[in-house]
Amino acid sequence: MSEDNQRMNTPAQVVYSNIQTEVNRAKMPVFKLIVFGILAGMFIALGAAGSSVAMHNVSNVGLSRLLGGLVFPVGLMMLVFIGGELFTGDCLLILGVMDKKVRVLSMIKVLVIVWLSNLAGAVIIAALAYFSGQFNYTDGLLGAFTIKVAYGKATMSFGQAFSSGILCNIFVCGAVLIAAAAKDIAGKVWGIFFPIMAFVVSGYEHCVANMYYIPAGIFAANSEKYVNAAMSSYGFDADKIAQVNWTNFFIKSSIPVTLGNMVGGMIFVGVALYYVYYKNVKAMEEY
């Protein structure tokens, strides 16, 4: 069966195609990387904001996460179909490095620029969500829920955040590659939807999603209404509220989760797949 007649790309074809994509990504002008990075941060944050609305008044943890998981994937879908550069997906640059078509320094440059740009985009959405009054839903319970989520993510141990970050990016990079395997938009939608839903339901940590969740919680913690709702609904006190801050965002969340995401995407997905399909990739390159 010819490649044109296949209903989907084979795993080896997906790896080969992704390497070509990473080569182009490494050559992308800095300004374009920044704009695409901001867009990706905004898209993921929009998915996160919508999932919080779906979850905030559901007491059953499993059902709450399932509802969130049904909404959150829209962010990655927007990114894939419209355009954007997402840090976690860009960890697959390691494929280009291993194939000796992307320099390590080029990979590092792209990842740093995209991470910072994702942060800018996500914080913009967090601020807009706060100032839009969205957190007033259910008499301020959404604002209280936003503080609760931020607290949980900003106070994790390094090991917990790191391990959860690894598990998350196995799903995210898997979703990116499954979308590349599909040849029509419906296949790409489902290829993105299920892995992303699974990571949200599982409660794993995504560094870019946290760029929305924790800053949104920091904004919400500045409102007396939301703080009072967090105290009455979740038993929070002033000490817990105080831990929802920028220092914990960067030190206790961003660093370990980002490192975990890198290990998950680069080692558990990128390196593993390149090792398995190395000969196939080389054969395609020679062809």
List strands and helices in order, with pairings.
Elements: H1 11-26, H2 30-55, H3 61-71, H4 74-82, H5 87-90, H6 93-98, H7 104-131, H8 137-154, H9 158-181, H10 185-202, H11 207-220, H12 224-234, H13 238-242, H14 246-286
Write a short abstract of this structure.
The protein has 287 residues and is mostly helical. The protein has helices at residues 11-26, 30-55, 61-71, 74-82, 87-90, 93-98, 104-131, 137-154, 158-181, 185-202, 207-220, 224-234, 238-242, 246-286.
Written description of the protein model:
With 287 residues, the chain is mainly alpha-helical. The chain has one domain: Glycerol uptake facilitator protein. It contains 14 helices and no strands. The protein is elongated, with a radius of gyration of 19 Å. The two termini are 17 Å apart. The model has no long low-confidence stretch (mean pLDDT 95).
What's the architecture in CATH terms?
Up-down Bundle
Helix and strand element order? HHHHHHHHHHHHHH
CATH topology value: Glycerol uptake facilitator protein
Characterize the biggest β-sheet: none
SS elements, strand count: 0
State the shape: elongated
CATH superfamily: Glycerol uptake facilitator protein
* Rg value: 19 Å
Determine the number of helices (DSSP H or I, runs of at least 4 residues).
Answer: 14
Helical content (DSSP H or I, runs of 4+): over 70%
* Overall residue-averaged pLDDT value: 95
